[in-house]
Design brief:
Elements (H helix, E strand, L loop, with lengths): L7 E7 L6 H11 L4 E6 L6 H7 L3 E4 L5 H11 L4 E4 L11 H10 L4 E8 L2 H4 L4 H16 L11 E4 H5 L10 H12 L3 E8 L12 H19 L1 H30 L5 H40 L3
Parallel strand pairs: 1-2, 1-4, 2-3, 5-7
Antiparallel strand pairs: 4-6, 5-6
Length: 307
Protein backbone atom coordinates (compact mmCIF):
# COMPACT_ATOMS: atom_id res chain seq x y z
CA UNK A 1 0.00 0.00 0.00
CA UNK A 2 1.36 3.41 -0.94
CA UNK A 3 1.76 6.29 1.49
CA UNK A 4 -0.92 8.39 -0.20
CA UNK A 5 -3.51 5.69 0.52
CA UNK A 6 -2.85 5.89 4.23
CA UNK A 7 -4.24 8.45 6.62
CA UNK A 8 -1.37 10.24 8.34
CA UNK A 9 -1.70 12.23 11.55
CA UNK A 10 1.03 14.51 12.87
CA UNK A 11 0.50 14.88 16.61
CA UNK A 12 2.20 17.70 18.50
CA UNK A 13 1.92 17.92 22.30
CA UNK A 14 2.45 21.52 23.45
CA UNK A 15 2.82 23.52 26.63
CA UNK A 16 3.73 27.18 26.22
CA UNK A 17 5.35 26.87 22.78
CA UNK A 18 4.04 30.12 21.26
CA UNK A 19 7.49 31.05 19.96
CA UNK A 20 8.04 27.83 18.01
CA UNK A 21 4.67 26.25 17.22
CA UNK A 22 3.88 28.19 14.04
CA UNK A 23 7.18 27.15 12.48
CA UNK A 24 6.67 23.51 13.49
CA UNK A 25 3.17 23.35 12.00
CA UNK A 26 4.32 25.01 8.77
CA UNK A 27 7.38 22.76 8.46
CA UNK A 28 5.38 19.54 8.76
CA UNK A 29 2.59 20.87 6.52
CA UNK A 30 5.20 21.45 3.82
CA UNK A 31 7.01 18.16 4.44
CA UNK A 32 3.88 15.96 4.32
CA UNK A 33 1.01 18.02 2.88
CA UNK A 34 -1.33 15.01 2.86
CA UNK A 35 -1.21 14.74 6.67
CA UNK A 36 -3.62 16.13 9.24
CA UNK A 37 -1.71 18.16 11.83
CA UNK A 38 -3.02 18.08 15.40
CA UNK A 39 -1.74 20.36 18.13
CA UNK A 40 -2.76 19.31 21.63
CA UNK A 41 -2.47 22.28 23.93
CA UNK A 42 -1.64 21.38 27.52
CA UNK A 43 -2.78 24.30 29.71
CA UNK A 44 -0.62 26.86 27.88
CA UNK A 45 -0.81 30.45 29.05
CA UNK A 46 1.06 32.14 26.18
CA UNK A 47 -1.44 31.80 23.33
CA UNK A 48 0.00 28.60 21.86
CA UNK A 49 -3.42 27.27 20.87
CA UNK A 50 -4.45 30.45 19.04
CA UNK A 51 -1.18 30.62 17.09
CA UNK A 52 -1.40 26.94 16.15
CA UNK A 53 -4.96 27.39 14.90
CA UNK A 54 -3.98 30.39 12.77
CA UNK A 55 -1.13 28.29 11.33
CA UNK A 56 -3.60 25.70 10.07
CA UNK A 57 -3.42 23.01 12.74
CA UNK A 58 -6.36 21.17 14.26
CA UNK A 59 -6.18 22.30 17.89
CA UNK A 60 -7.38 20.22 20.83
CA UNK A 61 -6.82 20.61 24.56
CA UNK A 62 -5.79 18.36 27.43
CA UNK A 63 -6.45 19.87 30.87
CA UNK A 64 -4.34 17.37 32.83
CA UNK A 65 -0.81 18.72 32.80
CA UNK A 66 1.98 16.42 31.67
CA UNK A 67 3.23 15.09 28.35
CA UNK A 68 2.15 11.53 29.15
CA UNK A 69 -1.41 12.70 29.75
CA UNK A 70 -1.37 14.54 26.41
CA UNK A 71 -0.05 11.56 24.46
CA UNK A 72 -2.65 9.28 26.06
CA UNK A 73 -5.42 11.61 24.92
CA UNK A 74 -3.97 12.03 21.41
CA UNK A 75 -3.65 8.30 20.85
CA UNK A 76 -7.19 7.71 22.10
CA UNK A 77 -8.85 10.54 20.14
CA UNK A 78 -7.13 10.43 16.77
CA UNK A 79 -7.89 7.75 14.21
CA UNK A 80 -5.20 7.27 11.55
CA UNK A 81 -3.06 4.64 9.84
CA UNK A 82 0.26 6.33 10.56
CA UNK A 83 1.02 8.51 13.57
CA UNK A 84 3.84 11.03 13.73
CA UNK A 85 4.61 12.41 17.17
CA UNK A 86 6.97 15.35 17.52
CA UNK A 87 7.66 17.99 20.15
CA UNK A 88 6.41 21.48 19.41
CA UNK A 89 9.69 23.21 20.27
CA UNK A 90 11.11 23.45 16.74
CA UNK A 91 14.19 21.31 17.44
CA UNK A 92 13.41 18.39 15.10
CA UNK A 93 13.92 18.15 11.33
CA UNK A 94 10.54 17.95 9.59
CA UNK A 95 12.16 17.18 6.22
CA UNK A 96 13.06 13.69 7.47
CA UNK A 97 9.44 12.79 8.15
CA UNK A 98 8.69 11.51 4.62
CA UNK A 99 11.65 9.14 4.77
CA UNK A 100 10.61 7.90 8.22
CA UNK A 101 7.09 7.21 6.92
CA UNK A 102 8.46 5.48 3.82
CA UNK A 103 10.58 3.18 5.95
CA UNK A 104 7.63 2.38 8.21
CA UNK A 105 5.44 1.42 5.24
CA UNK A 106 8.00 -0.25 2.97
CA UNK A 107 9.59 -2.32 5.74
CA UNK A 108 6.28 -3.09 7.48
CA UNK A 109 7.49 -1.60 10.77
CA UNK A 110 5.65 -0.45 13.86
CA UNK A 111 8.02 2.35 14.83
CA UNK A 112 10.72 4.54 13.32
CA UNK A 113 12.58 6.68 15.85
CA UNK A 114 14.60 9.77 14.97
CA UNK A 115 17.96 9.61 16.71
CA UNK A 116 19.29 13.07 17.37
CA UNK A 117 22.50 14.49 15.96
CA UNK A 118 22.92 17.99 17.34
CA UNK A 119 23.75 20.77 14.90
CA UNK A 120 25.24 22.68 17.82
CA UNK A 121 25.52 20.40 20.83
CA UNK A 122 26.28 23.30 23.18
CA UNK A 123 23.01 25.07 22.34
CA UNK A 124 20.83 22.01 21.58
CA UNK A 125 21.66 20.06 24.73
CA UNK A 126 21.89 21.38 28.24
CA UNK A 127 24.81 20.10 30.38
CA UNK A 128 24.16 16.55 31.51
CA UNK A 129 21.44 15.73 28.96
CA UNK A 130 23.68 13.73 26.64
CA UNK A 131 25.20 11.76 29.51
CA UNK A 132 21.82 11.27 31.18
CA UNK A 133 20.25 10.03 27.95
CA UNK A 134 23.13 7.61 27.45
CA UNK A 135 22.87 6.24 31.00
CA UNK A 136 19.09 5.79 30.85
CA UNK A 137 19.22 4.23 27.38
CA UNK A 138 21.92 1.79 28.53
CA UNK A 139 19.88 0.90 31.62
CA UNK A 140 16.79 0.11 29.54
CA UNK A 141 18.87 -1.88 27.04
CA UNK A 142 20.38 -3.94 29.85
CA UNK A 143 17.04 -4.65 31.53
CA UNK A 144 14.71 -5.05 28.55
CA UNK A 145 16.88 -5.85 25.53
CA UNK A 146 19.32 -4.00 23.30
CA UNK A 147 18.15 -1.96 20.36
CA UNK A 148 17.43 1.74 20.82
CA UNK A 149 20.30 4.22 20.87
CA UNK A 150 18.27 7.36 21.65
CA UNK A 151 15.50 6.25 23.98
CA UNK A 152 14.35 9.77 24.88
CA UNK A 153 13.80 11.05 21.34
CA UNK A 154 10.50 12.92 21.03
CA UNK A 155 10.23 12.39 17.27
CA UNK A 156 8.74 9.07 16.14
CA UNK A 157 6.57 7.58 13.41
CA UNK A 158 4.32 4.73 14.50
CA UNK A 159 1.77 2.33 13.09
CA UNK A 160 -1.89 2.26 14.09
CA UNK A 161 -1.35 -1.23 15.53
CA UNK A 162 1.33 0.03 17.93
CA UNK A 163 -0.51 3.19 18.98
CA UNK A 164 -3.88 1.59 19.65
CA UNK A 165 -2.44 -1.32 21.65
CA UNK A 166 -0.22 0.84 23.85
CA UNK A 167 -1.60 1.07 27.44
CA UNK A 168 -0.03 4.35 28.58
CA UNK A 169 0.43 4.89 32.32
CA UNK A 170 2.90 7.80 32.20
CA UNK A 171 1.93 11.31 33.22
CA UNK A 172 4.98 13.33 32.20
CA UNK A 173 8.21 13.22 30.23
CA UNK A 174 8.74 9.54 31.08
CA UNK A 175 6.36 8.73 28.20
CA UNK A 176 9.29 8.14 25.79
CA UNK A 177 10.75 5.61 28.21
CA UNK A 178 7.46 3.75 28.48
CA UNK A 179 7.04 3.82 24.70
CA UNK A 180 10.50 2.36 24.19
CA UNK A 181 10.05 -0.38 26.78
CA UNK A 182 6.66 -1.31 25.33
CA UNK A 183 8.24 -1.70 21.88
CA UNK A 184 11.03 -3.89 23.31
CA UNK A 185 8.62 -5.96 25.38
CA UNK A 186 6.27 -6.61 22.47
CA UNK A 187 9.25 -7.25 20.15
CA UNK A 188 7.71 -5.06 17.47
CA UNK A 189 9.76 -4.33 14.32
CA UNK A 190 11.39 -0.90 14.47
CA UNK A 191 14.22 1.12 13.02
CA UNK A 192 16.13 4.28 13.87
CA UNK A 193 17.01 7.12 11.52
CA UNK A 194 19.56 9.78 12.33
CA UNK A 195 18.19 13.32 12.07
CA UNK A 196 19.59 16.74 12.80
CA UNK A 197 18.62 18.26 16.15
CA UNK A 198 18.68 22.03 16.49
CA UNK A 199 18.52 24.40 19.43
CA UNK A 200 15.24 25.98 20.44
CA UNK A 201 14.25 29.29 18.84
CA UNK A 202 15.33 32.37 20.77
CA UNK A 203 12.83 33.12 23.52
CA UNK A 204 11.70 29.49 23.86
CA UNK A 205 12.49 27.63 27.07
CA UNK A 206 12.70 23.90 27.74
CA UNK A 207 10.12 22.42 30.12
CA UNK A 208 12.41 19.49 30.96
CA UNK A 209 13.98 19.51 34.42
CA UNK A 210 17.27 17.60 34.28
CA UNK A 211 17.14 16.12 37.77
CA UNK A 212 13.41 16.05 38.51
CA UNK A 213 12.42 14.48 35.21
CA UNK A 214 15.51 12.27 35.24
CA UNK A 215 14.37 10.83 38.57
CA UNK A 216 10.86 10.34 37.20
CA UNK A 217 12.30 8.42 34.24
CA UNK A 218 14.37 6.25 36.59
CA UNK A 219 11.23 5.61 38.65
CA UNK A 220 9.39 4.55 35.49
CA UNK A 221 12.22 2.16 34.53
CA UNK A 222 12.17 0.71 38.07
CA UNK A 223 8.36 0.33 38.02
CA UNK A 224 8.27 -1.33 34.60
CA UNK A 225 11.15 -3.63 35.54
CA UNK A 226 9.16 -4.77 38.59
CA UNK A 227 5.95 -5.16 36.58
CA UNK A 228 7.37 -6.75 33.42
CA UNK A 229 10.32 -8.72 34.85
CA UNK A 230 9.09 -9.71 38.34
CA UNK A 231 11.13 -12.91 38.60
CA UNK A 232 14.37 -11.05 37.86
CA UNK A 233 13.38 -8.17 40.15
CA UNK A 234 12.38 -10.28 43.15
CA UNK A 235 15.11 -12.80 42.33
CA UNK A 236 17.78 -10.12 42.74
CA UNK A 237 16.18 -9.03 46.01
CA UNK A 238 16.06 -12.67 47.14
CA UNK A 239 19.73 -13.16 46.25
CA UNK A 240 20.69 -10.02 48.19
CA UNK A 241 18.85 -11.21 51.32
CA UNK A 242 20.30 -14.71 50.91
CA UNK A 243 23.88 -13.38 50.75
CA UNK A 244 23.40 -11.15 53.83
CA UNK A 245 21.90 -14.07 55.72
CA UNK A 246 24.83 -16.34 54.83
CA UNK A 247 27.39 -13.68 55.78
CA UNK A 248 25.74 -13.29 59.19
CA UNK A 249 25.41 -17.04 59.68
CA UNK A 250 29.01 -18.09 58.88
CA UNK A 251 30.57 -16.77 62.15
CA UNK A 252 27.73 -18.34 64.13
CA UNK A 253 28.34 -21.76 62.57
CA UNK A 254 32.09 -21.46 63.14
CA UNK A 255 31.55 -20.61 66.82
CA UNK A 256 29.03 -23.43 67.20
CA UNK A 257 31.42 -25.95 65.65
CA UNK A 258 34.17 -24.86 68.06
CA UNK A 259 32.33 -24.59 71.39
CA UNK A 260 28.94 -26.17 70.71
CA UNK A 261 26.81 -23.12 71.63
CA UNK A 262 25.23 -20.17 69.86
CA UNK A 263 26.41 -17.09 71.79
CA UNK A 264 24.90 -14.45 69.44
CA UNK A 265 21.24 -15.42 69.47
CA UNK A 266 19.90 -12.08 68.05
CA UNK A 267 22.24 -12.39 65.06
CA UNK A 268 21.10 -15.98 64.52
CA UNK A 269 17.45 -14.87 64.60
CA UNK A 270 18.19 -12.03 62.15
CA UNK A 271 19.98 -14.43 59.78
CA UNK A 272 17.06 -16.87 59.92
CA UNK A 273 14.57 -14.07 59.29
CA UNK A 274 16.52 -12.80 56.28
CA UNK A 275 16.71 -16.32 54.83
CA UNK A 276 12.93 -16.66 55.27
CA UNK A 277 12.36 -13.32 53.52
CA UNK A 278 14.68 -14.45 50.74
CA UNK A 279 12.58 -17.57 50.22
CA UNK A 280 9.30 -15.63 50.17
CA UNK A 281 10.76 -13.07 47.76
CA UNK A 282 11.76 -15.84 45.36
CA UNK A 283 8.33 -17.46 45.56
CA UNK A 284 6.65 -14.07 45.01
CA UNK A 285 8.79 -13.56 41.92
CA UNK A 286 7.76 -16.93 40.51
CA UNK A 287 4.06 -16.27 41.10
CA UNK A 288 4.15 -12.73 39.71
CA UNK A 289 6.16 -13.90 36.71
CA UNK A 290 3.27 -16.15 35.73
CA UNK A 291 0.83 -13.25 36.05
CA UNK A 292 3.16 -11.01 34.06
CA UNK A 293 3.32 -13.58 31.26
CA UNK A 294 -0.47 -13.65 31.12
CA UNK A 295 -0.58 -9.85 30.99
CA UNK A 296 1.97 -9.74 28.18
CA UNK A 297 -0.05 -12.32 26.26
CA UNK A 298 -3.13 -10.11 26.65
CA UNK A 299 -1.14 -7.16 25.30
CA UNK A 300 0.01 -9.29 22.38
CA UNK A 301 -3.57 -10.28 21.55
CA UNK A 302 -4.61 -6.62 21.71
CA UNK A 303 -1.72 -5.72 19.42
CA UNK A 304 -2.69 -8.41 16.90
CA UNK A 305 -6.33 -7.29 16.90
CA UNK A 306 -5.41 -4.09 15.07
CA UNK A 307 -4.39 -3.89 11.43
Amino acid sequence: MKNNLKKIAVTIPCHNEAVAISGVVSAFANAIPEADIFVYDNVSTDGTAEIAKKSGAIVCTEPNKGKGNVVRRMFADIDADIYVIVDGDGTYDASKCSEMIRRLVDNNLDMVTATRKAINSKDAYRPGHIFGNWVLTRAVSYLFGHGFTDMLSGYRVMSRRFVKSFPIISKGFEIETEMTIHALQMRVPYEELETMYDSRPEGSESKLSTFKDGLRILKMIFLLFKEERPFQFFGLFSLFLFMISIILAIPIFITYSEIGVVPRLPTAILSTGLMTLSFFSLVSGLILDGLSSARIEAKRLSYLSFK
